[in-house]
């Protein structure tokens, strides 16, 4: 899958409909990589993560669908939910960020790439101390 790790933003983005496996010889489409970065940056601006308890790094994975206009279709889904109050807070903040940023104009501005952008998986990492 295409993915970009955002060190400063503490999360990564995968375009779920464009899988790339180790055995694939074809490099990822540079336009898709650029659009993935734009989506990551857009959601970064909308994310207000909770303060992480010491020594409790967590990751929340959010999967969501986008319409051609960049709006969210349905409800974002938390993949591999975990127990605990901090995980719940982190998951809620990630879903709020995705919803707050909708519509994601990058999708609407690139209709020819909609099939590659319609399903998104984002990994949100709890901020380090």
Please describe the structure with a list of short key phrases separated by commas or semicolons.
alpha+beta; disordered N terminus; five-stranded antiparallel β-sheet; single chain; 129 residues
Give an account of the 3D structure.
By secondary structure, the protein is α+β, with helices and mostly antiparallel strands. 33% of the residues lie in helices and 26% in strands. A 5-stranded antiparallel sheet has the order 1-2-5-3-4. A hairpin with a 4-residue loop joins strand 1 (2-6) and strand 2 (11-15). Helix 1 crosses helix 2. The protein starts with a strand and ends with a strand.
Structural class: alpha+beta
Number of continuous helical runs = 4
Oligomeric description of these chains: single chain
User: What is the distance, rounded to the nearest whole angstrom, between the alpha carbons of the first and last residues?
Assistant: 29 Å
Order of strands in the sheet with most strands? 1-2-5-3-4
Uncertain ranges: 1-11, 15-26
Shape: elongated
Element-level helix/strand string: EEHEEHHHE
């Amino acid at each position: 899958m295409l993915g970009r790790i955002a060190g400063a933003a503490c999360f990564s983005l995968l375009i779920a409909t464009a899988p790339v496996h180790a055995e694939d010889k074809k490099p990822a489409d540079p336009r898709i990589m650029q659009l993935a970065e734009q989506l990551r940056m857009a959601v970064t601006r909308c994310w207000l993560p909770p303060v992480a308890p010491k020594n409790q790094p967590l990751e929340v994975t959010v999967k969501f669908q986008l319409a051609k206009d960049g709006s969210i279709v349905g409800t974002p889904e938390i993949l591999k939910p975990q127990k605990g109050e901090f995980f719940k807070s982190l998951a809620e903040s990630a879903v709020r960020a995705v919803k707050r940023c909708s519509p994601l104009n990058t999708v609407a501005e690139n209709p020819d790439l909609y099939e590659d952008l319609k399903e998104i998986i984002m990994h949100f990492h709890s901020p380090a101390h």
